[in-house]
Amino acid sequence: MIDVAALAVFIPTFFFVSITPGMCMTLAMTLGMSIGVRRTLWMMIGELLGVASVAIAAVLGVASVMLNYPDAFAILKWVGGAYLIYIGVNMWRAKGKMSVDTSKPSDVSRKSLFTQGFVTAIANPKGWAFMISLLPPFISVEHAVAPQLLVLLGVIMTTEFLSMLAYATGGKSLRLFLSRGDNIKWMNRIAGSLMGLVGIWLIFG
Q1: What is residue 103's predicted lDDT score, i.e. its pLDDT?
Q2: How far is 106 from 118, CA to CA, in rounded Å?
Q3: What is the SS3 assignment for 124?
Q4: Helix, strand, coil share of the chain (percent; to 5)
Q5: What pLDDT does 46 receive?
Q6: Where are the transmembrane segments (predicted)?
Q7: pTM for the complete prediction?
């Protein structure tokens, strides 16, 4: 199993990185404001699976192969960035109504929410860089890799979920204020701008 001392270092380190505002936390807050926490859970599931995929790839060495082919990685960044910008544009065009109609939650595609979370997670270059640089050192070659990876993934998934839940819950509270009058329009524009800026940062960062 994983070394206890190493785990004691990994937990607070990853928690600090996870709770810091970033792409996935911004998405959780934005969706929490627009569609509520319950439906945002579908995005969280996609994000958690995306983060888990990146973590596993980092440990198995797939990520290091990607770094040897910068063109492929650049394409991944552009696709992810363009997707987030697309979300931001839709929010701006929503004007005086919610970008996702909360009055008809059944009309919101769960697959779309899942995809948003998954793509945001796997298209984040800083997420890849973090996993590549931090995660492998906590894996000891003297012990079986699978049990160690499961423990680290458990920490990662739990920390990410709690962080996104905190952001989404805060977003839902903000929605109670922002949904009055023209505040809905400004909420969409602010949230759309955030997603657009994140997309631009992903492409050119």
Answers
A1: 42
A2: 21
A3: coil
A4: 80, 0, 20
A5: 95
A6: 6-29, 41-66, 72-92, 145-165, 186-204
A7: 0.66
Q: Are 80 and 177 in contact (CB under 8 A)?
A: no
Nearest Cα residue to 191 out of 111, 102, 106, 90: 90
Question: In whole angstroms, how far apart are CA 25 and each of 18, 52, 64, 195?
Answer: 8, 16, 26, 11
Q: Can you state the angle between helices 4-19 and 125-134, rounded to 10 degrees?
A: 160
Instruction: State CA 78 to chain mean position distance.
Output: 16
pLDDT tier at 69 (50, 70, 90 boundaries)? low
How far is Cα 171 from Cα 30, in angstroms, rounded to an integer?
6
> pLDDT tens, 112-164?
899 989 988 888 776 776 677 667 667 766 777 778 888 888 998 999 999 89
**Distance (Å, whole) CA 110 – CA 41:** 9
Residue type at position 92: W
Residue 104, pLDDT score: 43
Cα separation, 201 vs 22, in Å, equals 11
Angle between helices 23-35 and 183-204 (to 10 degrees): 160
- DSSP letters, 173-186, are HHHHHHTSTTHHHH
User: For residue 70, what are its two tokens?
Assistant: 């910068």
